[in-house]
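stage 2 :: seqdesign
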């Protein structure tokens, strides 16, 4: 049974990635969020941010998501970050999306980079290029939505020092899940 679930999750993730645009680089992804009316102001009022060009998510009852990105502060790359998520609940399909997490101040950034950081108890519905998410976790309540890549939308305030925005890239997924995004950070080694 576990093998069947694993195969279903992998098939959903592969299916969600078919037709996705090239993942792009951090700067390309950041540019999408800078063009958004709702997230552009966060580039000037934040101490730093973590950007994930592509997160792939898939599931059939049990789901998984994975993405990698980088953390920036004051215009400099600080290190690499990995996001993993396992969820259980009503969900089916696969999707890809970009995500950016803004840090209001140095303390919020240090909380994120000090070890394993986690958002928990999320519910979302994303189809093709429209998205809506609500998350409640250790960092508080967060909401976001996007109509298309140039119109990412979310609440316009920080919650417990962070603000999270997503832009759907493609795929089709229905989900109402309980599971959390977990982040692992590793500092950049000096050149």
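stage 2 :: out
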């Amino acid at each position: 049974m576990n093998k069947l679930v694993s195969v279903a999750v992998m098939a959903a993730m592969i299916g969600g990635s078919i037709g996705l645009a090239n993942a792009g680089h951090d700067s390309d992804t950041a540019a999408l969020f800078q063009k958004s009316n709702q997230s552009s102001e966060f580039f000037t009022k934040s101490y730093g941010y973590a950007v994930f060009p592509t997160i792939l998510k898939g599931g059939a009852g049990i789901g998984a998501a994975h993405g990698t990105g980088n953390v920036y502060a004051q215009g400099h790359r600080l290190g690499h970050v990995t996001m993993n998520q396992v969820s259980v609940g009503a969900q089916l399909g696969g999707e890809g999306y970009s995500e950016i997490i803004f840090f209001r101040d140095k303390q919020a950034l240090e909380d994120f980079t000090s070890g394993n950081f986690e958002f928990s108890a999320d519910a979302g519905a994303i189809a093709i290029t429209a998205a809506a998410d609500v998350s409640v976790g250790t960092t508080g309540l967060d909401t976001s939505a996007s109509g298309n890549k140039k119109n990412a939308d979310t609440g316009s305030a920080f919650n417990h020092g962070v603000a999270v925005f997503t832009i759907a890239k493609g795929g089709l997924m229905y989900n109402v899940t309980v599971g959390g995004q977990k982040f692992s950070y590793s500092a950049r080694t000096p050149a």
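stage 3 :: structure notes
- DSSP finds four helices and eight strands in the chain.
- The first helix runs from residue 2 to 17.
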